[in-house]
Amino acid sequence: MRATVSAIYLYIVNIIGLGIGPSATAIVGDLFFPFETGIRYATVIVSPFGFFAGARLFFASLKHIRKDAG
Predict the structure, then answer these.
(1) Do 25 and 39 touch, CB atoms closer than 8 A?
(2) What is the tens place of the pLDDT at every residue in 44-63?
(3) pTM of the full predicted structure?
(4) Cβ(56)–Cβ(47) under 8 Å?
């Protein structure tokens, strides 16, 4: 069961990390910064949202870890 959960976790992380992240950056770059070097500004805008979402999910999981640890 542990291997199955690990495989599902890695699948979800890869789908989000390799699928949604670059696509969101490209969409923001194309919509708001259509010039040649606009991708750097899109990266600066999209990255903090990903960091915030990751930190929020991490801290939300801590209460469950503490409960299981005793």
Answers:
(1) yes
(2) 999 999 899 889 989 999 98
(3) 0.68
(4) no
